Amino acid sequence: MGGRDGPLTERVMTRPRSTRATLGLLVLAAGLLFGSHVRAEEEAAKSDESTEELTKKTQNPVADLISVPFQSNFNFGAGPRHALLYVLNVQPVVPIKLTEDWNLITRTIVPIISQGSLAPGIDHVGGLGDINPSLFLSPSKPGKLIWGVGPTMTFPTASDRLLGSGKWSMGPTGVVLAIQGPWVYGALANNQWSFAGWGKSEVNQGLVQPFVNYNFGKGWYLTSAPIVTANWTSQARNQWTVPVGGGGGKLWRVGKVGLPVNTQIQAFYNAVRPDFAPDWQLRFQLQLLLPTFGRK
Question: 255 pLDDT band (50/70/90 cuts)?
C-alpha cells in the first residue's frame, strides 16, 4: 500500500499545480494580447486623428506648415486654334515665426509654362513665367476666424515675352477662413497694379479664390477652389474669367517614415471668359508636407 500510495499521491498533487500554472500562463498571454490590441487601436485612432487634422491644415493657406505643392493646370481650347495651355505652378509655402503671437507665411508661385500655337503666326513656346511671391501676416493662435493679410508682387521673370506681362506689379492680398467640423471654407483675394517694366500694357488685375472643403476622415475630402480673375484694363465683356467646378483628394502617408503627401484633382468649366480664353481646365496637384519643420 505504502509503496503504491507514494507515487499516486504525488501525481494527484502535481496535476492541480500544473493546471494552475497553465491557466496562469493563458491569462497572462490573453492580457498581453488584449493590451497590445488596445494599444494598436489607440495608435490607429491617434493616426486617424492626426491625418484628419493635417488634411485640414493643407486646406488652410496660412497654416503653420511647410508645404511644396506641384500644381498642374491643363487649359483646353485657348486661342483661335483651341490650343492647349499647360502651366505647372511650383508653390512653396514657408511659415516664419515672428513672435509668440504672430506668424509670417510666405507663398511663392513659380509658373513653368508650355503654350501651344494659339493663333496663326504664333509658334509654340515654353519656359518660365512671371514669379509671384506673397506674404501673409497671421495670428499664431487664431480664434474661430482664421485670417492673414499682406503684400503680393509679380516679377517680370518670364523667359519669353509671350509668357509674361513684362511688368513689375504689386498690391494687397488677404485670406479669411473658418474650420467647423468637417468643413473648411473661406476665400483668398488680391489685386495688383504695375509700376515699372518694359511691357506695353499696364497691369490692373484682381483675383478671388473661394474655397470649400468637406472632409470624410482618413484623409479623403471633396473640394472646390475656382480661381476667379478680373482684368480691369480690358473691355467689360472681356474682363472676367469665372470657372465653375470642383473635385476631390486624399492625404496619403508614404514610406516607413509616413511622409504626408496630399493629392487632389479638380475640373472647371469657364462659365464666363474673355474672347479666345480656354473653355475648361483640369487641375491636378501633388503636395509634399513637412509639418514638423513648419511648427518650429
Answer: confident
Fold of 59-294: Porin (2.40.160)
pLDDT tens figures, 130-180: 999 999 999 999 889 999 999 999 999 999 999 999 999 999 999 999 999
Nearest-CA neighbor of 174 among 134, 205, 223? 134
Question: Smallest Cα–Cα separation from 124: which of 139, 138, 113, 132?
Answer: 113
What does each C-alpha distance from 3 to 10, 11, 14 come to in angstroms? 12, 14, 18
Q: pLDDT at position 21, please? A: 55
H-helix or E-strand spanning residue 35: helix 2-58
What are the backbone angles phi and psi of residue 36, rounded to the nearest 5°?
-65, -40
Asked whether the beta carbons of 124 and 91 are under 8 A apart, the reply is no
Q: Which of 173, 174, 161 is nearest to 123 (CA)?
A: 161
Which residues, at least 6 apart from 128, have a Cβ–Cβ distance to it below 8 Å? 110, 111, 112, 113, 157, 158, 159, 163
Give me the residue spans of the domains in the chain. 59-294
Burial of 27: CB neighbours in 10 Å, binned 0-12, 13-18, 19+: exposed
Q: Considering the chain, what percentage of its residues have pLDDT values greater than 90? A: 75
Contact status, residue 262 vs residue 239, Cβ threshold 8 Å: no
37 has a pLDDT exceeding 60 = no
pLDDT at 124 over 80: yes
